Amino acid sequence: MNLSTSGWSHSALQRPGRAGRRRRPRRRPRRRCVQILVVVTRPRSMTLWTLTQSALLAANGIAVLNEHRFLAKRGLTPAAIRDGQCGATSLRGQLIGVINAVSYLRMPLVALNSVVIFVKLVFG
Question: What's the angle, vertex CA 100, arms to CA 99 and CA 101, rounded to 5?
């Protein structure tokens, strides 16, 4: 087989049209700069309003605890005080009393949450 008639050149078996061209170097990918926007705000101080919101948030967290699934496994039900597992004046007994009291405050918590949401929407 004659290489000159088949369309291939003798130098490295390249096509005839590309024999004299140089290969372009591969381009490096561009580095993308990430701009970070820093918002400088004045530090907020602890006010009575933020303290009230914190207490409301903690009460919401206690109110959603399920007595059968979560509290019974840890012995934090009122039955633990009745059975004599802990005293009513001990730290654990006081914690059980707070959890029990907050569970009765679910409807007032809904009203207080609504008030806080409204105030946040109106005043920011």
Answer: 90
Task: Tell me the pLDDT tens digit for each residue of 79-106.
Answer: 888 888 888 888 888 888 888 888 888 8
pLDDT digits over 33-52, tens only? 666 777 777 777 888 989 99
16 lies in some domain: no
Residue 38 lies in a domain: no
Instruction: Provide DSSP, 50-109.
Output: HHHHHHHHHHHHHHT--IIIIIGGGT-SHHHHHTTSS-TTSHHHHHHHHHHHHHTTHHHH
